[in-house]
Records
---
Amino acid sequence: MDRKFDIVIIGSGFGGLMCASVLGKHGFKVALLEMAESYGGNLQNFVRDGLVFNTGLHYIGALEEGQVLNKIFKYLGLMDRLEFEMLDPECFDRIIIADRTYCCASGFENYAQRLLSYFPEEQEAINNYMSLIRDVWAKNPFLNFREIDPNFDYSMSFSNTGLMDAINSLTTNEELKAVLLSNNGLYAGVPGRTPFYVHALINGLFIQSAFNVKGGSARLADAFVSIIKEQGGSVFTGKKVQAITSKDLKAISALTADGDEFFAEAFYSTIHPAEAIKLFDKGVFRKPFVQRIEKMANTIGSFVLYVTLRKGVFEHIKSNIYYSKTQDVWGAVYKPEEWPKSVMMYTTEDKGLPGFAESATIITFMHYSEVAQWEDKQKRRQDGSYEAFKEERSARLFAMIEERFKGFKAASVSWFSSTPLTYFDYTGSPEGSMYGLAKDYKSGFGSYLPVTTRVSNFFITGQSVGVHGVMGVAMNSIVAASKLLDINELLKEIEGS
Ligand SMILES: Cc1cc2nc3c(=O)[nH]c(=O)nc-3n(C[C@H](O)[C@H](O)[C@H](O)COP(=O)(O)OP(=O)(O)OC[C@H]3O[C@@H](n4cnc5c(N)ncnc54)[C@H](O)[C@@H]3O)c2cc1C
């Protein structure tokens, strides 16, 4: 087999797939190398009891005609190949704090009006909040397809205001603050660390519109792979890259664990940056750079409960649920006895019995330290303690859900769970981190990692660079692809789609 390509891309999550299709569209001969047996990374699905479950991505924002992801997806050729299902525009996110429920409505105006109906005395704070969100969106040149100086420093589009500083400046109303911050599961927020721009980009995205991929997130990966292959690209699974050879700060080839060697003119890594730099011989990257990356914190991992529901019993909810026991909505910051403090939950509809759910997925945070003792796979299977831990945690999650959704447990036929170890195994994410490197508003470097490296033809992208999630990774992929393309031509092409 010919192992010479223009570009080798490491990792087939959204970032790898998008870079491959953008570069393939411009005539580059691309090879995508994925260590797992299936492509997709966090887009992967699995089937249990005949039902499709998402391992990661479950909803996408700004996908309505004219909105930013709609343009990007059209440009990539994805809109024609996929079907999307809109979440309830009157309540795409349903926020539950203790026994109080709030709906988030789609569209900036509707969102503000709905908030105002709950907090009529907070008009000024709500207006100011909306302005802050819109401002972050307006300032970002990529989201607006504005002409950019090719030497533009991407990090300049992000301000280093802390999320809590921004929210505290708006109001002293703790309930309103909790409502605004309750979907922090989408970015694994930590009050003393998370920058406001991360919240603003993600909340602003979903406020515009919110959709599921019909049939599950893996359809997105399937569509990408068919596009990449039509462009003449190659997708290899079961190819774990374990080294990159280089000479005079130029990458030459990628060596895979099964003994293959892939040569290319340029290399893109979409895996965790700390893992990416380990692929090179010691000394290629300077010590301070390596140490800085190694010292950066990862976002927390997750514990996910996947539940098959009895037919025709539990109502399908056309919203994402964000449920916190108290106004302390920061689920990632917990004491062991408090776990789980807050959850994200969504159901999938039984198409044979419209209005009823056939499955539910419940996501909450979990520190890697809670499961690190079972990192060794053999040990994990030995004495049943890992399974017992998962059962005990599943029971705690069920108990929390039952408090707000009476009858949920009785409606559950079967269930199983994943922990940060699952993600560690399947995507190689260090500590099973959900979203890769955490952004820290107090650290300039922590806010944004440059795509270019000391190795002239080696670029890093994916969720740890810039912002995570489909929109964040799409932006990062555009920035990364533009290292070989004219950024302004590329933005014009996308905008014109
Ligand atoms: C539980 C959960 C829920 C989420 N929900 C949403 C959501 O609703 N909406 C949203 O927009 N985002 C969501 N996200 C985030 C989103 O899924 C990710 O930010 C995005 O998919 C990351 O894409 P990526 O390409 O950067 O990384 P990944 O998807 O992690 O892909 C990296 C790939 O690299 C491969 N790899 C690793 N090491 C090697 C190696 N040495 N050689 C070859 N291959 C390698 C991995 O196997 C993996 O396939 C969610 C994430 C999680 C975990």
---
Amino acid sequence: MSLAHKSLQSCPYCQVVQEVNYYQSVNVTIDPELKQKVLSGTLNTATCKACNKEINIVSGLLYHDMGKRIMLELALDENAVDEDKDVIIKDLIDKGYIYRKVYEYGRLIEKINIFDQKLNDKIIADVSARMKALLEESLKGVREDRETIEFNVIFDKIEKSLFKKEIAFHCFTHPSQVMRVKYNLKQLFLDEKRDLYNMDLLRKQGPTS
Ligand SMILES: [Zn+2]
């Protein structure tokens, strides 16, 4: 079940206080139309009743896909404790769910995207880290100052052409300048190649399985 909440929020543009609806959890199996809203970043937005501008409601989110047995949590407060939620999540993990916690909206979308393509997110994360290190290393060579530039590397998709398969990433040091970089699947380690499409490896094995 997807849970909508109401809260009082003041519009950042005209300061008029009003009641807004927002979701703290979505079940995309029961409410598939909400998935598109999550992906487009419009799930938790409201139109101001006074000035008609769009209000972005900042909230954590649980993303639940029963078909793929995935629970993704967007947490905005790393220190928040919610024991009821922890019990539910532990139960799902015991039932073979893949659970991931992320702290940025972009990373939530990335995880949805990875699991929608039935990929092993641990391997994607490892490749992404190698890509990030390569990019940062290459920049060191061309920059005279020693300032460390941090790259964000975010999975996009697997690209297949007649002769090669590549993992494509979006990468940027600043969101205004996004580049695409690709990693040839041939460069993967043997076990990575074997397990890239094995999501079930990420699930806890129940006592009967
Ligand atoms: Zn307003």
